[in-house]
Amino acid sequence: MELKEKITGLIITFNEEKNIQEIIDNFSICDEIIVVDSFSSDQTVEIAKQNLKVKVIQHRFEDFTKQRNIALDAATNDWVLFLDGDERIPTDLQKEIIEELNKSDKKEAYYFYRKFYFAGKPIHFSGTQNDKNFRLFRRSKCRYVADKKVHETLIVKGTTGILKNKLLHYSFDNFEQFKKKMLYYGLLKGSELADKGKKYSIITHWSKVAFKFIKTYFLKLGFLDGVNGLKISYLQSVYVDETYRNLKNKKESV
Question: Hey, which residues does 116 pair with through a beta bridge?
Answer without folding.
Answer: 123, 169
